[in-house]
Structure formats: C-alpha cells, structure tokens
Amino acid sequence: MAHRDGRRTEAVRSYRGHGIHAAPGVHEYAAELVRAALPEGGRVLEVGSGCGALALRLRDAGIDVVPTDLDPPHEWIHRLDLDDPEWTEETRGPFDLVVCVETLEHVENPRQVLRSIRALLRPGGQLLVSTPNVTHPHSRLLTLLRGAPYIFGPRHYHSPGHITLLPDWMLTEHVRLAGFDRIEVTTAGDTLYQGPMRAAYRVEMGLLWLAGIRQRATSGDGVCTFVTAVAV
Q1: What is the pLDDT, as a whole number, of residue 4?
Q2: Is residue 133 within 8 Å of 225, Cβ to Cβ?
Q3: 21, 61, 113, 144: least CB-packed within 10 angstroms?
C-alpha cells in the first residue's frame, strides 16, 4: 500500500484522477496478469478496490469487473466487508476471476477471505492476490534492525492498517487450503522512496546483493508478492 516513505508524481500515483493505493507498478502488473488469465474475456470481482483506480484500468482494457470495498468512495463501487461478507446480486458470482490486490494485509482472517473468494468462482475459476513482500531483502534488513518489514510496524498498524504479515510460503499455503491449485508466485512493484532516500536504498540493495541476500524480481523491485491460482 502507498504511504509516506517517499513521494511520486501525481501522474504516477493516480489513474484517471483516482488515487492508487498500492506500490508503483503494482496495478500495471496486476492488469497484465488479468489480461493473461482471461485472453477471451470473463467476469471479474475485485475485492478491496479502494478509490477504484485498478477497476478503471481493467475496464479500460475491456475487462468486465465488479469493484467492491469496505468503505466505497463512489456509488459504482459495491460495499463488501471481507471479514463478514454479505453478498448481493452483483457480488455473489459466480465469477471467472477474483482480484484481491494489496488487501489481505488489512484483514483479520485472510484464510477466511480466501475461502469466501473460492466460493464465488466458477469451476476452474482463477485467483489473483498480492500483498507486501515481507521477504524482500529491504524488508529483511528492516526486520533485523527495527523488528518490522517495509510498510509494517507501529506507525503502519492503524494507518494504512497493515495488520497481517503474509510471507509467500504462508500465503501460498492459505491459498492451497482454501481450495486452489496450480499456484504460481511472482514479485513486482517498486518502493516509494525518492531523492536521497532512493539513492540510499539503491546503495543498500547493492550491499545486500554482495552479501548474498538477493531476490530476482519479476517486475520492478519486487516489493509485493503476487499469487495466482486455479480453483479446484
């Protein structure tokens, strides 16, 4: 999720005037994965839509998407509480794909959310989720130094509300137990650091690489973990 550890230009941090509450590059990569998953189209549910930037991006790509959020800021985004879902005619499915980008770290019970998502999918339907990559080299160093990875910790607990850490091994196991297989993990997204902080981050990453603490990102710096899977 976006936070105040750096600044990007407004053009990068919004889409068609709607704020992007995710790391730079995350929405672009998510849209690529959706297009690859549904080359002939299909019906998509997005959980945790925020201001609707990703939903608009997907609609502009010709995707039929139903956006939802706990506190929808627009009437075209449907209300949905992931911890206690009350499905409506528009949101109950079935869907061909459910997208849940940078949302599971905000919920109390991600396993229950994934089970609810599984129930909304058609047979063979697909899942796309992402969450901050807490095993990224930068996060591993921050955990060692301060006890919490990048964009987690006391000042991120209440705002933006990052309450659940999900390393990739745990997230994939949650996904498997929720009723999915053909699970694939990739990484994408960049930090929000700019100016001197960005330069210091690059030096740090170089030193960590030399020390053998490395990660080959799929896209960008890989600060977010993406999991795709197919409903059993």
Answers
A1: 35
A2: yes
A3: 144
CA–CA dist 115, 179 (Å, integer):
7
Task: Please list the ranges in the chain whose pLDDT falls under 70.
Answer: 1-12
Cβ-contact 161, 3 below 8 angstroms: no
Q: Residue 173, Cα to own-chain centre: how many angstroms? A: 17
What gap in Å lies between CA 69 and CA 103, rounded to an integer?
10
CB atoms within 10 A of CB 217: 17
**Token pair of 136 as six digits:** 């990224």
Helices and strands (H, E) in the chain, number of each type: 7, 9
Q: Which residues of 156-185 are buried (b: 16+ CB within 10 A; e: fewer)?
A: beeeeebeebbebeebbebbeebbbeeeeb
pTM for this predicted structure: 0.92
- Cβ-Cβ contacts under 8 Å for 227 (sequence gap 6 or more): 127, 128, 129, 130, 168, 171, 172, 175, 183, 184, 185
Question: Which of 107, 111, 97 is CA-nearest to residue 64?
Answer: 97
Look up tokens 């010709």; give the residue: 62
**Separation CA 174–CA 171 (nearest Å):** 5
